[in-house]
Amino acid sequence: MKVKTILVSQPEPKVENSPYFDLIERQKVKIDFRPFIHVEGVSSKEVRTQKVDLTNYSAIILTSRNSVDHFFRIAEDLRFKVPDTMKYFCQSEAVAYYLQKYVVYRKRKIYVGKRTFAELSPLIKKYKTESFLLPSSDKLKPTVPAILDDLGVNWKQATFYKTVVSDLSDLRNVYYDILVFFSPSGIKSLLKNFPDFKQNDTRIAVFGNTTVKAATDEGLRVDIQAPTPETPSMTMALEKYIKEVNKKK
């Protein structure tokens, strides 16, 4: 079955040089983008019920731009003036750069990891006397608490926002040759929106082992997988597959 249409379960890229746009051009396929999940902030009242007092913390661990937005939202709701002495531990440069939306970068104590949480941990370990707050979603990777516990630091996790299934009811009678997923939450959203979903000839592309497991646990057939040594990105995996099936007569 040739591939003509693809649905990517993420927002449309904002950059003009996205590899998805190159893929559309080279392989002459139609790609639509639609987030299957979205983030909603919890109320300051819900944060209080988690026994979180922002005045007790001297350092904030920020793992994503969402965690930045929702930490400062809650701080504002609780009328907490974030002190200039607050230390920020950012998982990546992208998160640290985004922090500038709320603080004057050069006047704050900001520590930046390379990419993964494990790469941030040595910086956290250097400041073991600090009290760390980890504002996160309700879908926190289990490796994060495990790493912090191993470091032996004083820390607390609090849910400041939640990952919520998006309403996809308008797609009920729309069919795509390939559906692309990047998280177990995306698989969950598909089946919550369409509990009677039958895969049939629809190809499913997944990124990451946890997403593969989520798909296969639900009885779905995974046709395209990334990252692999040969195709480290999803667009590369899609292009390889499309080239193979579209050249067949």
Q: Descriptors for this entry?
A:
alpha/beta; Rossmann fold; six-stranded mixed sheet; elongated
Order of helices and strands: EHEEHEHEHEHEHEEHEHEH
Helix residue percentage: 25-40%
The tally of structural domains comes to: 2
How big a fraction of the residues is strand? 15-25%
| Computed structural class | alpha/beta
CATH topology of the largest domain: Rossmann fold
Q: Within the largest sheet, what's the order of strands?
A: 3-8-7-4-5-6
Write the layout of secondary structure elements.
Blueprint: E1 5-8, H1 19-27, E2 30-33, E3 37-41, H2 44-49, E4 59-62, H3 65-77, E5 87-90, H4 93-98, E6 109-112, H5 117-125, E7 131-137, H6 143-151, E8 154-165, E9 178-181, H7 184-193, E10 203-207, H8 209-217, E11 224-226, H9 234-246
Helix pairs in contact: 1-9, 5-6, 7-8
Would you summarize the structure shown here?
The chain is α/β, with parallel strands linked by helices and 249 residues long. It has helices spanning 19-27, 44-49, 65-77, 93-98, 117-125, 143-151, 184-193, 209-217, 234-246; strands at 5-8, 30-33, 37-41, 59-62, 87-90, 109-112, 131-137, 154-165, 178-181, 203-207, 224-226. The longest helix has 13 residues, at 65-77.
